């Protein structure tokens, strides 16, 4: 029997896709990477995943795990060789248990993030991971890339929200590590090793995640700001004034929100006149466990101080749930608007918050000096130092002409990130997009240790080869 014959016998022919049936799996959602797969396997449980991996190990067939296929760095797209088995985890989509006494939820890797949020809410709890792609991205992918999102400031990245994992190793064994323990000091932390490894060390099939009490009240406001320096000062005051209640702080260039309302006329900025044309905006939110009145009083007091200090030129506070959703919808529509306006050179970077204003000012200047007229499309999670620092075409510049400059633009931006002691990947991962970039900016010893870990856990090199680190 051939490899594919054995695979069909193992999973059933309906769960082994070949030919044109694989097309939607081998193209990333941004249309940036198009690969080829030997086949797409769709196992239905952990033991089936393990059996498929054992088969791949025996035949030395590379295997690439894929969740919701929302990777932004090509981490879930196969290469052009056509010899990789793409293993879709979409059928592993069960909520296994909810433990409200322990404040945990155990879910399978193919669960859509939004479904996990809803299951938590039905149990009277909050699962705080929140992303623009939450209606399509999967928990397995969130874990594989250590996804961040809009509430990292208070709750942390996916790694911080995870207590235990179930993982299929490259030789097809299953690590049953679904322990809902907040303290377990019994050796190396394998959980944290697998999270963020993008399927290069093993396949995460389930996870035990932290839950939190549902907030009693939320307060949300959009601020018009004169500059990034003022945004950093507002963040500092918000942290001092709100403490642990501060849930999110998003920074957006005026170009971004003004583009959203141009493209989507049904959306509106809650400002008029000069405030609507502000060069920068910040969206901030607090969550309170005490009362609506307590949250509102604190919120208005701190924002009043911000306005009196001249750090913001205007502020719009949401008066109800619908207005809160509308403000967040403005923020979440930026990537869609950006895609509609055409391809840009994208960067997902992090810089110490104290150096973000300097980074933006310096890098904007370097780009204009080297590529006159390019457009700066800057937004992100100021509260944790993560910026999506994107570069769009200059007026009249063809998209293809900008993309021809991509390598040079990357170098200018990433050199500046490095000079400001930042990271070239904050929350999107490395995938295949930034493999070569790592060799330029990562400490050689770090790279050597990463390669040693890869070789120790995946000696045959069959797990998502060509991603994150090359050995």
From TrEMBL:
The keyword Flavoprotein applies. It holds the Pfam family FAD_binding_4. GO terms for molecular function: catalytic activity; FAD binding. Its cofactor is FAD. InterPro entries: FAD-bd_oxidored_4_C, FAD-bd_PCMH, FAD-bd_PCMH-like_sf, FAD-bd_PCMH_sub2, FAD-linked_Oxase-like_C, FAD-oxidored/transferase_4, Oxid_FAD_bind_N, Vanillyl_alc_oxidase_C-sub2. PROSITE patterns: FAD_PCMH (PS51387). The keyword Isomerase does not apply. One of its GO terms (biological process) is respiratory electron transport chain. Residues 33-214 form the FAD-binding PCMH-type domain. Keywords: FAD, Flavoprotein. Belongs to the FAD-binding oxidoreductase/transferase type 4 family. This is Hydroxyacid dehydrogenase. It comes from Achromobacter aloeverae.
